[in-house]
Amino acid sequence: MQSKPKITFTYINKLALPALIAGIAEPLLSLTDTAIVGNIDVNATEALAAVGIAGSFLSALIWILAQTRSAISAIISRYFGANRLDEIQSLPTQIIVINLALSAILYFVSIAFVEFIFKLYNAEGLILNYTVSYYKIRAVGLPLTLLVFSIFGVFRGLQNTFWPMIISITGLLLNVGLDFVLVFGIEGFIPAMHIEGAAYASLISQVVMAVMALYLFIKKTPFELKFLWPFNTEIKRLLLLSLNLFIRALSLNIAIYFANSYATAYGNNYIAAQTIAFQIWLFFAFFIDGYASVGNIVSGRLLGEKDYKSLWKLSVDLSKYAIVIAFILAIICFIFYIPIGKAFTKETDVLDSFYGIFWIVLLMQPLNAIAFVFDGLFKGLAEAVTLRNTLLIATFLGFIPVLLIGDYYGLKLYAIWIAFTVWMFLRTIILVIVFRKKYLVNTTI
């Protein structure tokens, strides 16, 4: 039988650090777009708002469809723990094909209704034009992103975060370089492409990452990139798991939609400030997710081995590590509070709005850390129903009521970020209580 490594500090970090680097690549792409677009010479505030709105919608689509990454990771890790990978040989390619088909359909539907969609975000005039232009280019890469995420899920299930890290670093560095070249141009060689340049930079990076992912899938996994018929017996469970995670991601993105829609309605300066704050929030989330992903990767394996004591210990250790990381990041941001804002824009009104709420974003990070860790654990355990119900409660009984009350009293961006804090508190407390009741009891068996 294949021996499995013990869950030690060294082992956790061996998985977490590459996953952390791979995880922050995606928000760093968005942060780069945000920072560069926010510093262009013409209509910077409108361009910044457009990147925030289009990026928010695109992230919603990706997060909803990318839940199959967590689903396939959970199933593969369980079979890996039980030494039965040969039974799911056909599964990865089948889910990759399904993902590509779904994302292609979603691309054509969203393009057909693109102006209508962004008018729902209260975008109009120049902001609407920029948003539509940026989205039409970025959205071409939607199927490629889903392909990469599916392959990342396979690697995670195999307890391997190294190759996803290499792919993500390559995409990040390429995107940053292309952002500068295509947005600002090179005099006499490449014309400045403004906001469309940022979109093309992301798209080219997605193409390169997809090619790398396919190559490494063929060379570095025990699976074949060959669609086999009939469907694997696990495909039904994987799709059901994915469906519940889809609903979870949909409710998550409803909260984000309301936040951006209300911020846009408050005015250009507010949605620009909200874009900066939310991109930083996402960066923190994906940074901390490096440790949360270890829960996703390892918990399924431990469940397959029926090692409940190690599972409980894993939850405690990951929570401690994630909280420490969150505190360090928050302290660094407090120290560089003013320079961080100025890195994204020089518009005084935007900076005033941003600085007014940035402290809330930072103070909520330790709370976020615990929520993200238990998100990862429950994904690895294939507890999609618990995750679904938690997000439905947090969004519809927490975020939206608090946002509406805050908006009624004219709190504007404060209302949005107080609502986000309540949202994360509910996510944290529900998952911790359920996990404790369900899995702590097994440590005595």
Annotation keywords:
ion transport; MdtK-like; 445 residues; transmembrane helix; mainly alpha; globular; 17 helices; cell membrane; membrane
Give a brief rundown of this model.
This protein is mostly helical and 445 residues long. 82% of the residues lie in helices and 0% in strands. The protein has helices at 9-37, 44-65, 67-81, 91-112, 114-119, 125-138, 142-157, 162-184, 194-220, 235-266, 268-305, 308-335, 337-344, 348-363, 365-380, 384-408, 413-440.
What structural class is derived from the secondary structure elements? mainly alpha
SS summary, helix count: 17
Q: What's the oligomerization state?
A: single chain
What order do the SSEs take from the amino end to the carboxyl end, as H and E? Answer: HHHHHHHHHHHHHHHHH
